[in-house]
Amino acid sequence: QGPFARAVLEAATREKFVTLGYFRRRASKLAGIPIDVSRTGYTGDLGYEVWIPAERAVEAWDALMEAGAAYGIRPAGMLALDVVRLEAGLILLEVDYTSARHALNPEQNYSPYELGLGRLVDLRKADFVGKLALGREAAATGVKRRLVGVTLDWYGIEGLYQAQDLPPAISASVDRSPKPVFGARGGSQIGRVTSLGWSPILKQAIGLASVPSTYEAPGSKVQVEWTVEGRRGRVEATVVPLPFLDLPRRRA
Prior knowledge:
Layout: H1 5-13, E1 25-30, E2 33-38, E3 49-51, H2 57-68, H3 78-87, H4 131-139, E4 145-152, H5 154-162, E5 179-183, E6 186-199, E7 204-212, E8 221-228, E9 231-240
Antiparallel strand pairs: 1-2, 2-3, 4-7, 4-9, 5-6, 5-8, 6-7, 8-9
Helix pairs in contact: 1-2
């Protein structure tokens, strides 16, 4: 994953991948190892995923690292992946929404329309599980809530720490614990932030939030709960379009 992903893959396989379309796959070989390459990734950048026989994974790893040395390749773990998937506005199962199989109450029941995935629903298809319910939802005036992107006011975060005589601090990893969301003028809770973190590329605190559809328009103002030393405060936040980071090369 990254701006040099294609160059590294081509150097390792000695094949061209410029014609491999977004969300397509093809067979190849890496250091003599049969592999499948898919034009996919859980980031907002150019990327590929390589499917390898488990017993030859170490050989394939070494070949990729050797080919990528000239491009500054670096291994990255799940914590880093979580940050880039948040920047890309990619939702995470059982974090940003609950699967229908595990939902225990109406609040945990999400539809594709509420998650911004309505474009993937084709009601013209033959019968499938949930078709009638989705059809009724699509025919209605609109959904009651939406998953949106929010950017948090850094000066507001600083102020909460300053009130405790502390320097501002934010974790380098994504916080997956739900955070209450309130209307712009305070009052009662209207929703919740599901993923929250610092974007090292955008230099902003960003999050995914489930809010009433009346707040889904970009530019809408809300407040997000932020706790410092056990003291709860609220930080101003603005609804923004998703994804936060949309690089053209991601789909190139």
